[in-house]
UniProtKB/TrEMBL annotation:
Membrane topology, as annotated: Multi-pass membrane protein
Domain of life, per lineage: Bacteria
Location in or out of the cell: Cell membrane
InterPro entries per record: MetI-like, MetI-like_sf
Protein name per Swiss-Prot or TrEMBL: Carbohydrate ABC transporter permease
Family under the similarity heading: Belongs to the binding-protein-dependent transport system permease family.
Length: 275
């Protein structure tokens, strides 16, 4: 009886926690389909009595949200692919290849995670301006790949690589496998869960970032969705229905990404905990 009581209490606690976590997103979607006159006169959690998608069509057609979404998707997708590739290469070197000063170099690089992003903003901007990359896709992408979040990505993959038995690599070496063969045929296939987690985290963080796009872009040709919503809010401060509709448009792709990769994310966390 006591075991059942504890189990019921645990599930109740988890359900409440899940509802608290999901509530802001549900309220955003709910408010985005409300009539403009009902938005400020009813609580955010009250279901819309007469849902309308006019807010979405208005913000999509009048404010060119499709371009902002496309810019954000291109930047986030390219950053995700490049960061996963380079992080895997660096993590493999730090985990499996012996060279002088490997541990010192690794921990020195990981220590850069302690440097606030704001400290590197001005030097990065001056560097991008020197190479004439202001308001360009490369200017948006390169700092993410080699700066923002890269140390954590390498640390995450390196720690996972170290949990893979060395005997598998030794057996492959005996069969004549090269270093690149070991990397592509053993390490990468066995690391799919953590790579899916890293890809999801990188995509979401890049999608939501507003500070660097605010600094490096100055026109609509490269403006991302987070910056577009901020600009929309400043232009239509009293029309919260449009702002919430734009926020919902930015939220839906992230929900789809998470639903597509949730199994891999949960599996990577479970495997890491077991090992």
């Amino acid at each position: 009886m006591m075991h059942m009581f504890k189990k019921t209490g645990l599930y109740a606690f988890l359900i409440i926690g899940a509802l608290v976590s999901v509530a802001p997103y549900l309220m955003t979607l709910n408010s985005a389909v409300k009539q403009p006159d009902k938005l400020l006169t009813t609580p955010a959690w009250e279901p819309a009595t007469s849902p309308t998608f006019a807010n979405f069509s208005q913000v999509w057609g009048e404010y060119d949200m499709s371009s902002f979404l496309w810019h954000t998707f291109v930047v986030a997708a390219v950053v995700t692919v490049l960061q996963v590739v380079f992080s895997c290469l660096a993590a493999f070197a730090f985990a499996r290849i012996a060279f002088p000063g490997r541990e010192l170099l690794f921990w020195a690089y990981v220590a850069t995670m302690m440097v606030p992003q704001i400290v590197t903003i001005v030097p990065l901007f001056l560097l991008m301006r020197q190479f004439d990359l202001v308001d360009t896709y490369p200017g948006l992408i390169l700092p993410y790949v080699f700066g923002f979040g890269a140390p954590y990505a390498i640390f995450l993959v390196r720690q996972y690589f170290k949990t893979i038995p060395v005997d598998l690599e030794s057996a492959a070496r005996i069969d004549g496998a090269s270093t690149m063969t070991v990397f592509t045929r053993i390490m990468i296939p066995l690391s799919r869960p953590i790579l899916a987690t890293l890809a999801t985290m990188t995509f979401v963080n890049t999608w939501n970032n507003i500070l660097w796009p605010l600094i490096i872009t100055n026109s609509d040709r490269t403006r991302v969705i987070a910056l577009g919503i901020a600009t929309l809010k400043s232009q239509y401060a009293s029309q919260y229905n449009l702002v919430l509709a734009a926020a919902a448009l930015a939220l839906l792709p992230l929900v789809a990404i998470f639903l597509a990769f949730q199994r891999n994310i949960i599996r990577s966390i479970a495997l890491t905990g077991i090992k």
